[in-house]
Amino acid sequence: MKKIILSADSTCDLSSDLLEKYKIHTLPLYINLDDKEYKDLVNITPDFIYDYYDKNKVLPKTAAPSIGDYLNHFEQLNNGAYDIIHVSIGSGISASYQNATLAANELDNVYVIDSKSLSTGSGALLVEAYEMINEGKSTDEIVERLKELREKLDVSFIIDSLTYLREGGRLSALQAFGANLLNIKPSIFVSSQKNGQMDVGNKYRGNINKVFIKFFKDKLEDNDEIDLRRIYLTHSGADEADIELAKNTISSLKNFEEIIVNKASCTISSHCGRNTFGIIFLKK
């Protein structure tokens, strides 16, 4: 049985410590800002994007790695010595999956999984894959199981301000103005049926640290279908006090074995802005 290497897009939104722990190799998406090209989390950070927008009112455009980028990435990982399982951001929101698949078709040992999700939704699948590798599962067994697990992902976010969605063209100026004026915070959930596209869920009013408490309660309190092994709390840049409050709120609602905190990548952050909080878990 061949050894297995795990690979992902930079949008998997796992911390550098977790990437090292679970032996995950990432390929960055491109961030294009004012005619300059950057690589996600390589030479640009979410805080740089926020500061740049505050000063210049310009947001970046994001782009998938090319077929050639993926081919080079896969070849550098092993030159055919191992199997590679690559988990991609959802095909409904990025060309990454398509480009990775076309590159994999040039090789014999690369298996590309459409996560049908985004952010740490992809990361959660990679953690499951790592555990299956340690259990001695074969590549085919892991690939099939990941396809089952992606349908059990629950990925949702609460957004503090609609400014970034408006500037990114995902919301009209009138809608954003009305929501911001009324201090409305929408929840966004990721649809696996739409291959990672997002839909609007419940709407809340108030400050973000009060709102995410209500949001977490709605998602977790009476939900008996949650896999309690772990939950991921992913934020796009928030005060430590708010992060701690979010963790404590989750702990008070469900007895998770692990609450894993991550900060979102540039690609994700550039679409949602500061103070976005997401929770990601698997359903039974």
UniProtKB/TrEMBL annotation:
Keywords, comma-separated and alphabetical: Lipid-binding
Gene Ontology MF terms in the entry: lipid binding
InterPro entries in the cross-refs: DegV, DegV_C, DegV_domain_contain
Entry keyword annotation includes Cell membrane: no
Organism superkingdom: Bacteria
Organism whose genome encodes this protein: Helcococcus ovis
Name of the protein described by the UniProt record: DegV family protein
Record flagged with keyword Membrane: no
PROSITE patterns: DEGV
